[in-house]
Each structure stands twice: as C-alpha cells, then as structure tokens.
Amino acid sequence: MSEARRYGNRAGSLLSTAVLAAAASSALLTGCDSGGDDEQQVYCAREDGTIVDDDECDDDDGHHGSGGAFFFVGGFGGNTYRSGDRIPQQYLGSSGGSTRVSPSDPAARANAGIPSTGRVTSGTRVSGGIGTGGSGGKPATAGS
C-alpha cells in the first residue's frame, strides 16, 4: 500500500470519528433540555383535588384560601385540568409528586416556584420548586 493511501484511510477514519462524536454530543445535549422533568404546573383546588376558580387562591382579594382552596404544584402525569375537573388521587400529596401550598403563605409559594403574592392562573407552568433539583423555583419563561 502506498504511503499516500495509508494516510488517506487514517484521515477518513478520523473524520468519521469526529462526525460521530459531534452527533452523539448533540443528541446528549438535546436530551438534557432544561425544560424537562423539573417543569411542573400549578392548580387552585380543594383538598380533594377539585379544580376551583383561581379567585379562591388569590391572596389579593381577601379570600386567602378561606374556601378550603390550596395551590397544588406538581407534574400531574403531564395532564392538564380545567375548573370543575378533579385531579386524580394518584397525583395528590407527596406520594403522587405534588405539593399543597397555602395561598396566604408567601414563603411557601416562593419555595414552590410560584409568585409569592397575587393571582396565579391554574395550569401555569413553573420550573424548580419543592421536590425538584430545578432552578430554585423561578417561574418558567414563555416558550420554554
């Protein structure tokens, strides 16, 4: 085999290895998207998981959770709910991966990744919060 041909095969081999390495690292980085498992949703609901009007969890209008409503923060199996729906029991409580938060407790709200005061719309997505290794409870940005 000629000297030029031997180097040509070696260069082609190195190029193939570089292309494969780049593709593998791209796939790995795509799989590590920050919006993944840490993303959770917030719902205003009664103790039994029935979604209620967001006003019942709004600490600015005097309700302060007085109707027995709480924020539930969790993944909820990727499901979304509307007012009147009931979150299945399997998603409620720490064994179901959700956290119940008093609307009138600013520190607990902030720790759960939701604004410490004001109205929060049910279904709002947040990242981090209680029970995740996420971003310290900062609200998710639009499009993430």
Describe the structure.
This protein has 144 residues and is of the alpha+beta class. The protein folds into 2 domains: 1-32; 39-127, no CATH class. The protein contains 2 helices and 4 strands, in the order H-E-E-E-H-E. It has helices at 3-31, 106-111; strands at 39-46, 69-74, 99-101, 124-127. A 4-stranded antiparallel β-sheet has the order 3-2-1-4, with no helix packed on it. The longest helix has 29 residues, at 3-31. The chain is globular and about 75 Å long. The chain starts with a helix and ends in a 17-residue tail after the last strand. The model is unreliable at 17-36 and 131-144 (pLDDT under 50).
Task: Give a topology summary.
Blueprint: H1 3-31, E1 39-46, E2 69-74, E3 99-101, H2 106-111, E4 124-127
Antiparallel strand pairs: 1-2, 1-4, 2-3
Main traits of this protein?
24% helix, 144 residues, disordered C terminus, alpha+beta
Overall radius of gyration: 24 Å
Give the proportion of residues in helices: 10-25%
Q: Roughly what is the average pLDDT, rounded to an integer? A: 72
Along the chain, the helix and strand elements come as HEEEHE
Strand order of the largest sheet: 3-2-1-4
What is the straight-line distance between the termini? 55 Å
Summing up helix and strand content along with how strands pair, one would put the structural category as alpha+beta
Largest sheet: 4 strands, antiparallel
Content of β-strand: 5-15%
Number of domains: 2
User: Which residue ranges are poorly predicted, with pLDDT under 50 across at least 5 consecutive positions?
Assistant: 17-36, 131-144
Q: Count the E strands.
A: 4
Structural shape: globular
Helical stretch tally: 2
Oligomer: single chain
